[in-house]
Amino acid sequence: MSKSRNLINITDLTVEEIDKLIATADDIVANHADYEDICRHKKLATLFFEPSTRTRLSFEAAMLELGGSVLGFSSASSSSAAKGESVSDTIMTVGNYVDIIAMRHPKEGAPIVAAKRAEVPIINAGDGGHFHPTQTLTDLLTIKRKKGRLNDLTIGLCGDLKFGRTVHSLIEAMLRYEGIKFVLISPEELQVPEYVKEKMNSVGAEWYETESLEDAMPELDILYMTRIQRERFFNEEDYVRLKDSYILDLEKLENAKEDLTIMHPLPRVNEISVEVDDDPRACYFFQALCGKHIRMALILFLLGIEK
Ligand code: NCD
């Protein structure tokens, strides 16, 4: 059994711990110099068996900004997974070299297997269509910075709610705050999985499903757009048919609130027209910056390092 704290699912952290991470992320921005050397001689491994730009690079930038070092691989093909090595053996090996591991894997549950064997903290940087807790921490920090609160919000989640792991983790996280209403906007085939609906119902959450982004728009405080997850489809025809289900443009924003916060975990393909980027409500690149700040806070927390 692992001896360290891990982050596999967002609910591995209490609401108080998330508050603390958000406070640390803000302190990192306010007092950057205090953190520049705080992880000296510490090493982070980023083991990415699936593609990534923001998650991997923001983890690496986070550790470098804390004065630590990074090593790892960015595709299964450049690791011994290509020779048939198990996740467990890779983790047991890399655990000898580093102090903390962030891993992304196409198989749901792979980080749980890793956490069982590893002596060092394991961070789930995305497991298949399942969970993505560090994206959720990123999203919570973005919402807190933009709205000043994490309660009393109507959140529209739009796109691929079936395979989108960022959506599943964000819903789970937001279920712990008061006054949250979810508007789930997707084609029928891409609705959130049953287990997510059961979780929402078990805590009496307010939610409804719709196929119409236009109808939902006026009531939203937050619009969380997502990419159709091509790599998780069983056949290409279904992807081609569904890929352009939602394209957010300035016309669709005409009925939106003045202070709507538009988010997207990125990468975007077609789902937000580039003309929206200059709208002051577009927050997705700011969100990517928040990802670095909260990952800095998370690394410190899991390594047990305080300022
Ligand atoms: C997301 C992911 O990998 O799940 N990207 C990210 O980590 N920012 C979203 C996606 O790939 O669509």
Report on the structure:
The protein is α/β, with parallel strands linked by helices. The protein folds into two domains: 137 residues, Rossmann fold, CATH 3.40.50.1370; 155 residues, Rossmann fold, CATH 3.40.50. It is built from ten helices and nine strands. A five-stranded parallel beta sheet has the order 7-6-5-8-9. The mean pLDDT is 96. The site of N-carbamoyl-L-aspartate has 11 residues, from helix 2 and helix 6.
How big a fraction of the residues is strand?
A: 15-25%
> What percentage of residues falls in helices of 4 or more residues?
25-40%
Order of helices and strands: HEHEHEHEHEHEHEHEHEH
Q: Rounded to an integer, what's the Rg over CA atoms? A: 19 Å
Number of helices: 10
- What structural class is derived from the secondary structure elements? alpha/beta
Q: For this structure, what is the CATH homologous superfamily of the largest domain?
A: Aspartate/ornithine carbamoyltransferase
Q: From the 3D coordinates, which CATH architecture of the largest domain would you assign?
A: 3-Layer(aba) Sandwich
Question: Average pLDDT across residues?
Answer: 96
Number of domains: 2
Distance between the termini: 29 Å
**Sheet having the most strands:** 5 strands, parallel
Q: Looking at CATH, which topology of the largest domain would you report?
A: Rossmann fold
Sheet with most strands: strand arrangement: 7-6-5-8-9
